[in-house]
Amino acid sequence: EWVTNLTLLTKLKALANDNCVIADLAEIKKSNKIKLSQIITRQQGLIINPEAMFDCQIKRIHEYKRQLLNILYVISLYQQIIDGSVSIYPKVHIFSGKAAPGYAMAKLIIQLINQVALKVNNDPRVNEQLKVVFLEDYKVSLAEHIIPAADLSEQISTAGTEASGTSNMKLAMNGALTIGTLD
Length: 183
Hints:
By secondary structure, the protein is α/β, with parallel strands linked by helices. The protein has helices spanning 2-10, 19-44, 67-83, 104-121, 140-149, 166-173; strands at 53-58, 91-96, 130-135, 152-155, 177-180.
């Protein structure tokens, strides 16, 4: 089935400069982002601008998956916006994933993401530029909404540890630019 889908995708190359096709794909992405924004609003009461860039890291919560590195980057970005040293296009950092029940560090990372989200999402100084979301209860039905809405896909695992999971490919096939290691 994957081979057939990839073969079909290669036919899109001929349409790369077709403005109607590009507009249709942009409209599909926008629709997917609106749907995910509505899910976030229902789950968390947070209003998300669907025009913002959706920067997503969805995977097992683990130290080598570097969610901690990603949220530290968000903290740095938040501080730079407050200091006035940077102004960014509106961006939503979306985290989600599962962790082993006994994995204490994963629980701390999730707690940190949620605390940063609380701070960032309630600060009017950055409200128009930056949001942070941790979507709970990660499963296939949630991934079906996150993946087609993603603009950026964070695949920043420690080199040599990233599995070639299908989520990476699904994010790429749905038009997300991958930020990642060389794995």
